Amino acid sequence: MPALPLSDSRPSPAIADLFRRVRQDSVSLGKPLSDADATVQSMPDASPAKWHLAHTTWFFETMVLAPNVSDYRPFDQSFNYLFNSYYETVGERHPRPKRGMITRPDLATIFAYREHVDAAVEALLEQGAGEEISTLVELGCHHEQQHQELLLTDILHLFAQNPLRPAYKDPQPLAVGASEADPVQYKSFEGGIVEIGHDGQGFAFDSEGPRHRTLIEPFRLADRLVTNGEWMEFMADGGYRDPLLWLSAGWATILTEGWDRPFYWEERDGEHFTMTLRGAQPVDPAAPVTHVSYFEADAFATWAGRRLPSEAEWEHVAASCPMAGNFADSGHLRPRPAQNAAGAGEIRQMFGDVWEWTRSPFAPYPRFKPVEGAVGEYNGKFMCGQFVLRGGSCATPGGHIRPTYRNFFPPDARWQFSGLRLAEDA
Amino acid sequence: MPALPLSDSRPSPAIADLFRRVRQDSVSLGKPLSDADATVQSMPDASPAKWHLAHTTWFFETMVLAPNVSDYRPFDQSFNYLFNSYYETVGERHPRPKRGMITRPDLATIFAYREHVDAAVEALLEQGAGEEISTLVELGCHHEQQHQELLLTDILHLFAQNPLRPAYKDPQPLAVGASEADPVQYKSFEGGIVEIGHDGQGFAFDSEGPRHRTLIEPFRLADRLVTNGEWMEFMADGGYRDPLLWLSAGWATILTEGWDRPFYWEERDGEHFTMTLRGAQPVDPAAPVTHVSYFEADAFATWAGRRLPSEAEWEHVAASCPMAGNFADSGHLRPRPAQNAAGAGEIRQMFGDVWEWTRSPFAPYPRFKPVEGAVGEYNGKFMCGQFVLRGGSCATPGGHIRPTYRNFFPPDARWQFSGLRLAEDA
Amino acid sequence: MPALPLSDSRPSPAIADLFRRVRQDSVSLGKPLSDADATVQSMPDASPAKWHLAHTTWFFETMVLAPNVSDYRPFDQSFNYLFNSYYETVGERHPRPKRGMITRPDLATIFAYREHVDAAVEALLEQGAGEEISTLVELGCHHEQQHQELLLTDILHLFAQNPLRPAYKDPQPLAVGASEADPVQYKSFEGGIVEIGHDGQGFAFDSEGPRHRTLIEPFRLADRLVTNGEWMEFMADGGYRDPLLWLSAGWATILTEGWDRPFYWEERDGEHFTMTLRGAQPVDPAAPVTHVSYFEADAFATWAGRRLPSEAEWEHVAASCPMAGNFADSGHLRPRPAQNAAGAGEIRQMFGDVWEWTRSPFAPYPRFKPVEGAVGEYNGKFMCGQFVLRGGSCATPGGHIRPTYRNFFPPDARWQFSGLRLAEDA
Amino acid sequence: MPALPLSDSRPSPAIADLFRRVRQDSVSLGKPLSDADATVQSMPDASPAKWHLAHTTWFFETMVLAPNVSDYRPFDQSFNYLFNSYYETVGERHPRPKRGMITRPDLATIFAYREHVDAAVEALLEQGAGEEISTLVELGCHHEQQHQELLLTDILHLFAQNPLRPAYKDPQPLAVGASEADPVQYKSFEGGIVEIGHDGQGFAFDSEGPRHRTLIEPFRLADRLVTNGEWMEFMADGGYRDPLLWLSAGWATILTEGWDRPFYWEERDGEHFTMTLRGAQPVDPAAPVTHVSYFEADAFATWAGRRLPSEAEWEHVAASCPMAGNFADSGHLRPRPAQNAAGAGEIRQMFGDVWEWTRSPFAPYPRFKPVEGAVGEYNGKFMCGQFVLRGGSCATPGGHIRPTYRNFFPPDARWQFSGLRLAEDA
Fold first, then answer.
1. Mean pLDDT, to the nearest integer, of B155-183?
2. Torsion sign, CA atoms D97, D98, D101, D103
3. Min Cα–Cα distance to chain C from D362, Å
4. Residue B73: burial class (beta carbons within 10 Å; 0-12, 13-18, 19+)
5. I want to staple C101 with a disulfide (CB 3.0 to 4.6 A). Which of A364, B144, B161, D196 is the partner?
6. Parallel, antiparallel, or unpaired for β B279-282 and B271-276?
7. Would you state the pLDDT for residue D339?
8. How far apart are CA B31 and CA B36, in angstroms?
9. pLDDT (tens digit per residue) in D372-394
10. Strand order in the sheet with B265-268
11. What does the mean pLDDT of chain A come to?
12. Distance between CA A263 and CA A285 in Å, rounded?
């Protein structure tokens, strides 16, 4: 799900650097995968890794090269049909639930496709592309970063379907720190008219703006994320069996799907394990809970006598939190216990641990207008039935996190690195 | 879907009057129905008329009589199972999609059940019931008024399934006035901090409060509803065939369901007819369009280059609109063309014509807290995946309309009297 | 499911008698029903009683009156659309799963429709109708008898959905005889070439012929039906939990549907009850088990180390069993314990107790040819995915039972009065 | 779907030869596939090639090695769970619809698994294994041959989902002979008591026996298969649009699935193409039609005024037809026009062209009894809802075809090489 930029201020050389780095990151992500790993689609909501690697390339070919390089020779004419995602304006496309049928072209061919397109884009940028092209390339890079995270969450989902629980990365567990998280503290914030939304400095997707005033009431926000240990208490207290804790649609989902724990948890001889990108690993009680749906996050908050923050509250707080150092490595791939983060007392784990469900339905900001044309077929069309998540996860590329970023998923989605932080009225 | 009152100020005699009137209104609504009409369930979202008549009675029996009348003898013990709706706290209940299987008790027995309960409630009120009981009876009356409207929309849906298109009421068409609506005018409103939500004077459901401040931007609002004639233009312009006008989920629904016109419209020899409570009738181009979903309302607004109002905008305007005289008759059962309403130039058709879709997802107001106990199992649990509608329809009982009222339905619901009014940023 | 006659030998007065009796029987069956009872459709496989009463009448109107009475005035033009069942050649029809939406016309109107058509048919017969008309009327009568049984099984299914378990007939239980059935005995039959199928003497449906030779091997047949008591042993022995007893499709059904007992059984305080046309009643261990599917009958036979008989074996034995006296009353509505039937040692309970599943898929006899025209749209089109049942049940009209009769249902059907008798190779 | 042998007469060396040849054939079939090709499952009814290659190996490991080689070391303990198919008696197994999730182990590992097991089986056979082991190995070879054909049909299905229509084999079309088939001739056969079923000489599956007498009536059988050209006539004559030609369940399938041509046909610029193992190729009018369901075969026969043969009729004729030379090459992979077969006038194309639908439901022969134990979980459990096909197809391994062979599929299955031959009553 790409989105229109709100601004374009980067000079062309910086864009070329960005392009090279982002494109290389995707290749690195694809390297541990076999041809089969990269081909299979584990559910309609997920896409094959090969598709992510090709679709992001298709974006540059279709949006940047085709209109701007007169003698550009497409790598393969059939790829426009195969790797278009949902752009109704760009013609027919392969049906989403059948993306996993495309065993050919194989992964090596997709890497060759990437090189073909990369060379053409780099040549174009070297010629000193104008502002319009730079903007599109920058958009394409951020679009690709979105797919980098999806590639990881989709591979995790695929590997979780395999009874062998294969590891995407080095299967050795990270050293687990303290087995218990610091006690949570609630920090107070005053109400009033605040400004949220992107201000146009640097890249942002269309739905992050316009920056605008909004009114918030005094509230308190937890200084850290809800942990696995706390989630076990919720489970032990019958949290998944008490309909009064749940939204009506959430309870119906519980009954239909038989949910009784976070998505990737399984019990082995009385101990909780969870599927991770490093294979099945024991659940760390001090680490943030993840792979929970909005329904579960909301029920947990009700059980705890609190609520989820609104996205305005979250962003208001986040604007004053330092991001630096939090996620130097774009691939740590596991949320870290809070005690490893900045010192207690401050608001911690805001960026790069887990996507935090907010209580805010994904809706347009005041005066939001989708842009015209193919690149405008974006976030606006998803503003129905989804909730906003904030903060970025351990699978989010480092340069892709910012306080105004609005991620969104339906309330039953669980395969993302999604967790929660509690709030309450002051 | 009943909901907790925000206040209780009415004296007991007034409550007794309200009770008698509301209970009698339901009986009147049931009278044109045969036993079979009142028994069949036409879809899982609808309920049989008999069920509406019994469930509202069950509410008084369970919430008012059982706890407060020591020697109360239930009319029939099995009715608690049969006519509970969704109150998880009040025990097991008959599955919703099987409500139409209950051919016995018959309609006459349900009327007898109503008389049995009415007599007991009236006796209780005559004794001078205290505030708590008055509050519950008032809540029960408003709850019943909600079901009165649902009874009508559900019967309309049932009769629309019958190829004979039977009429619930006198099948003669109402006289149609001018065949064209007045040109629409957009009236400007200033932005700023406004107050919305119920202030506790008189009855309201829990989700209508608390009254609170909110910030709105300057905007313009259409002075009348979108008409059938305008909808025909949308259809003729390919509105149902252009994916760029639609939310992603809306377009998926179009493809799955084959929608290409409002819910009850059908074409006969090139002319549009619509199913109504008076049978199939020609579509009146000057009357407000109705039985359209949120998806359709949103697509229409996009096509028209405008947007739906937020519920705050709507309520801010509605607070200064006169309601009097608009719906003296609680059963006119057909939205009226705008030229029959108050003079052009003012904002018209705000109350009692059609439920107006807003762009606002149904979400809790700041500091909203559901009440404890069985009567608290209400609106809060539906705050997910639904959009707010405002204003009340031609099927809404007269005393049940107020500016703060928040109705809500999923974005694909079409069987209510739902239409729209356009807005735009100023 | 009507079917073409193989012969027509009855003189017209006899046909008129048959017509009057059959038509009156249907009215009697409809009398205990309320308008609502007669309107609701409890599942797609069942039809409303009103529909059965109207459809059988539509058959006479469309097949007999319309082509043969020049000045015949249809009772209501819309009924051709409403009450056609599946005859593709007779035009559009109301979709089967929506038969329960037709609350109007009401039951009284359907009775009036019946009288209108009866008068016209009787007048036609009095004029001395020729052979073709007599044949069609006779066919219509047998068609109607099929629907009489379906009316009863469908009402039973509807009433079983009602938690109140209403009784169609006098709810007092029949006196239960001995609590144990006689021990079953297996009677030997020689193999060889035998003749089966209808020989053209008297009425039969098309699929009952042609009479033809077939080769059977020596076998033994149980002298009575499997009882409820034996079924309880099967259940107690884990019959519903051992996949090795089941056909693959049967086991899949078990897992999907959660079957663990006959269709209408429920446990109350440790005792088995079953829903009947006289309401919920204790299960009689000596009575034949009924409302079991082919899957269950086959699994039971495997568990018992035996098999179901083929239809040729069954018919070969049945041809020499007396039918007289077995079912003088066409509506006893409950299968009787075997000890009440003819003396032990003989083959008992062949006619009018329960439909007996055979191991034979419903397939055409050698040289079978469907007849041309609308009345030919019959049994032939169902010769796929169904198994043959023989013998007739306690709900089958008396004159509708004969040794050559081939009933058929899919292997998961349970709402008919279907049971079984065991066989084994000699 | 393996099945119990009826006999075991082969000496051990012959079995060892058979084993080596069959095992090598599977490897050859797998060679053209990429890791991804071999991993993806294109529909629940199909299995990945990797699964076929592993499951057939699992059979030898579990049924032959584990019970008979005391120090046998399984290649990988987890494979018992992954590659069990449906044997309830051998423990838990991976759910069938999730077979395509197993990206690891990869294809190379599966080939290594095969070598590991092959070495152990060959060592066992060299020791001079007794009759029981020889029997099991022979059974395993025939089981594997069944999966060889399925591997091809499943790969064809997978490649047909890919818009690029990749070729499994050399994409050059075979030379097409005459564009028109010889006129069909019907050859007469006398009725009477005949013997069918396997007589115990050589290998056969359990359901092929016991050999038994059956009675057939005089009939005529077409001397060749129905051709693509004849199928085009059926289509042009509205065959897919006339409900009177179809079984009721078949017509429902037509409406739901939108069938209007054989499974793999598509139109390009007015010409019919069909997907084959050599990629998309023009339809050859003289070649036998294939990839049609029983529903379509039956409707075609009705349209042609004829019928499908019974399996007894087919086998009776087949017993006197020469098989030699018909399919020396086990992988020609495309049915050949009849004029290329033995001279006109005789019954042609009986073996190795397409599987021929018969009108016979798959049912047990007289005195059929499934064998005890895990290998007995076979054909018997599928004797419900399926129809018998005879003759073998162009994808059937040469040594796997015999006159008594009973293949079976549900009436809507189309992805096998299934066609038809007509018959009529004499």
1. 84
2. negative
3. 9
4. exposed
5. B161
6. antiparallel
7. 59
8. 13
9. 666 655 678 999 999 999 999 99
10. B265-268, B271-276, B279-282
11. 90
12. 16
Angle at A368 between CA A365 and CA A373, to 5 degrees: 140
| Contact yes or no for D217 and C212 at CB 8 A | yes
CA–CA distance, B418 with A124 (Å, rounded to integer)? 53
Task: Report mean pLDDT in 10-residue bins for chain D, 426 residues.
Answer: 48 88 97 98 97 97 95 94 76 85 98 98 91 94 97 98 94 64 95 95 93 97 97 98 94 96 96 96 96 98 97 96 54 66 71 97 93 67 96 93 96 98 97
CA distances from residue A276 to A47, A161, A265, A291, C107 in whole angstroms, order as listed? 18, 12, 10, 10, 64
Q: Tell me how far apart the alpha carbons of residues D107 and D103 are, in angstroms, rounded to a whole number.
A: 9
Q: Is C364 touching D (CB cutoff 8 A)?
A: yes
Query: What are the angstrom distances between the C-alpha of A151 and each of A132, D106, D382?
Result: 28, 20, 41
Residue of D103, D162, D168 to mutate when probing chain A, most A C-beta within 10 A: D103
Q: What angle, 0 to 180 degrees and rounded to 10, lies between the N-to-C axes of helices D131-161 and D49-59?
A: 170
In angstroms, rounded to a whole number, what is the distance separating the alpha carbons of residues D424 and B254? 49
Kindly identify which residue of chain C lies nearest to residue B42, measuring between CA atoms.
C101
**DSSP conformation class of A135:** H
Is residue A371 scored above 80 in pLDDT? no
Positions of chain C with pLDDT lower than 70, given as ranges: 1-11, 86-91, 173-179, 324-333, 339-345, 372-378
Tens digit of each residue's pLDDT (9 = 90 or more) over C385-395: 999 999 999 99
Instruction: Give the CA diameter of chain A.
Output: 66
Chain C residue nearest residue D89, CA to CA: C244
Spell out which residues of chain D touch residue C251, defining contact as CB-CB under 8 Å: 381
Token pair 């340069």 in the structure block, residue: A399
pLDDT of residue D170: 85
3-state secondary structure of B358: strand
Q: Token pair of A119, please?
A: 């060379």
Q: Model confidence over A186-229: pLDDT tens digits?
A: 999 999 999 999 998 899 999 999 999 999 999 999 999 999 99
- CA separation for the pair D344, D326 (Å, rounded): 15
- Where in D45-199 does DSSP place strands (E)? 186-189, 192-196
D106 to chain A, any CB pair closer than 8 A? The answer is yes
ipTM of the complex: 0.93
- Whether the CB-CB separation of B138 and B18 falls below 8 Å is answered with yes
**Residue A255 burial (CB < 10 Å; 0-12/13-18/19+)?**
exposed
pLDDT of residue D154: 98
- Rounded to whole angstroms, the Cα distance separating B113 from B135 reads 23
Does the structure show a pLDDT above 50 at A257?
yes
Please give the CATH number for the structural domain made up of A186-425. Answer: 3.90.1580.10
| φ, ψ (nearest 5 deg) of residue A271 | -110, 145
Model confidence at B337: pLDDT above 50: yes
Are C307 and D367 within 8 A, CB to CB?
no
Query: Taking 80 as the threshold, does the pLDDT of residue B11 lie above it?
Result: no
CA B25 to chain centre: 16
CA distance A119 to chain B (A): 33
Residue B327: predicted pLDDT: 44
Crossing angle of helices C12-30 and C49-59, rounded to 10°: 160
What residues of chain D lie within 8 A of the CB of A105, using their CB?
164
- Judged by DSSP in three states, D401 sits in coil
Predicted confidence at residue A334, as pLDDT, reads 72
Domain boundaries, chain D: 13-160, 186-425
**Nearest one of A191, A316, A212 to B218, comparing CA atoms:** A212
- Shortest alpha-carbon distance between residue A361 and chain B (Å): 7
What SS3 state is found at C173? coil
